[in-house]
Write a structure and sequence with these properties.
By secondary structure, the chain is an alpha/beta fold. The chain is built from eight helices and five strands; from the N terminus they run ααβαβααβαααββ. It has a single domain, classed as Rossmann fold (3-Layer(aba) Sandwich). A five-stranded parallel sheet has the order 3-2-1-4-5. The longest helix has 22 residues. The relative contact order is 0.20.
Amino acid sequence: MLATGATAPRALDPSRPYGPAGGSHGPFGRTPDNGGATVHTGRPSKAARPQAVPEKILQSFNTWAFKREQPDNIASLLEAVSGAARLAQPVPFVLYWGKGPRCRLDEPDTTCLDYLASLGSRVRRVYEPGVAFRLVFTDTHATLNGHAPDDMKAYFGAIEHAAKERGFDSCRLSELVFAAETAGAINLVNEDFPDDMLQKLGACAAKWFRGEGTVEEGAARYLQLNMVEKRAVQFAFPRSIFATFNGSEFRSLFPERMPVFYMYSLRRGTSVKPWFYPARMVEASEMGD
């Protein structure tokens, strides 16, 4: 078990579910931002409208229609938006997408994807290039939680197809870690965590962990994975905004130098992750993670 404040491992464990699967770019044929094209919501990119100053673009999505709490670094968010606006490109967002009990696409998933698309539509009202969403399928977390490879392939494949229909791109988290490790970009250092982080993760693991070992061991392993993975995501998408359905109490699990946008998942007032919903069940008033 990784104790709070302990040093993360300095070498990747060969037994981890990292490395390319199904080819040099993984089963989905995707590459990180620093080597691949970006698909965005909306029409092809054109020059920004005169009134589409970065502040207006930020205001278009940084509203309570989408955010579950205030961002912890507005200046960093504005910098990411400004960088996209200078090039008249879509504002880039990166979002984790996990695996729950279902193995097929269902209403909670499409409701979430449509909700993300509505954020893009809101941005396009003031900035025609819109936004670019890239879903990062957390296959490493699904493996840790005991999900079978075929189940992951079926579910993530269905989400990928539905996301592509809405103009979103996707990749697997294991692909990003493998690419960052190959480039020597994962530099693990001592890092302090909130004293109650393992307790919080343990509560989540008690609900969803079905892998090997105890719930406490699963939570500690999850923490170790995130310390590596957040560096890989930051390496792949240094100019993107990291969107999450979690709250700021989990900030230490997210990329350190990327701006974080804490948002609802399906609609205003709902933050349950879509992959944790049973089939055909979406509660309008349900809260939590």
